[in-house]
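Exercise 3.2. Students should predict the tertiary structure of the chain below and write it as structure tokens, then compare their answer with the key that follows.

Predict this chain's 3D structure.
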Amino acid sequence: MKRYSYLLPFALLLGCASTDQPAADAPVSTRALDVNRAFDVPALIGLNADEIARPLVSQSIRPDHDKTPRDLPSGSTEANYTYWRDTTALMVSYDPATLRVNSFFIKTKHGLTSDYTSLLKVANVSQYDKRLTIEPVASVNSPQLYTGVKLVPRQ
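Answer key:
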């Protein structure tokens, strides 16, 4: 026993050593940002511009109606309704003659975002929803950032 007594302090050190990863190597768990739904765009599919106004205005949403028709290069005419909830806007483009909805556009007052899927969550839209064509709109000055998402109902 005397022969190995000099190893006793090393054995104690090894026995007390932690087998866990050091704090610097431990994976960091970050909670995903909670994105509150501001609009339920899938529930609005199939409604005309006037029908959309009824459920939205009753949900503490500020409407901003721009009924001034604009002629498009395609020869058709469009007008817009914009609905604001806190800092998020849902712009509804429609044909003023028929009130048929052409598209939805979701954006925030914050301007640009690097991840357009957060805008889809705010609109309660899945990126796999087959009822909508999803068109992320990139910023002209910073193409890696998005100004909003255009959602076009499929016919």
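Discussion points: The chain has a mean pLDDT of 78. Strands lie at 62-71, 77-85, 88-94, 101-108, 132-138, 146-153.
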